[in-house]
Amino acid sequence: MLRVLGFRVSFRHPHKYLLHYLLSLRPWLNRHGWERSPVSAAAWALLRDSYHGGLCVRYPPQHVAVAVLQLALDCYGLEVPAHAQAQKPWWQVFSEDLSKAQIDQIILDLIQIYTLDAEIC
């Protein structure tokens, strides 16, 4: 069991990062879009589901938090304003060592969890 876990038996959870990112991102978004769509509830649900696949062991907690937030925003069709004109993407404000490719990979791994769940049922 320890070998499968890479001898990592303790890790930092992404919950505190997600909370910080949600509180920081909310003023950046359109107030009406934020209130009409349950982005934060979806992000929390995605984060809870990420524990079924071990994402929190394989990726840094900041990266997991950004990825679930990005997926929640994508699900509701929300974009961070001025993202195209910014000097760097919004997620690099929170985690400078994160790339779009890494976010996409984490999202794919999270979607894989739902795919496996559907195959089992």
Automatic annotation (TrEMBL):
Family in the record: Belongs to the cyclin family. Cyclin-like FAM58 subfamily.
Origin: domain of life: Eukaryota
UniProt organism field: Chelydra serpentina
GO biological process terms, semicolon-separated: regulation of transcription by RNA polymerase II
Alphabetic keyword roster: Cyclin
Record flagged with keyword Ion transport: no
Keyword Ribosomal protein: no
Protein name stated in the entry: Cyclin-Q
GO MF annotation, one: cyclin-dependent protein serine/threonine kinase regulator activity
Name of the gene: FAM58A
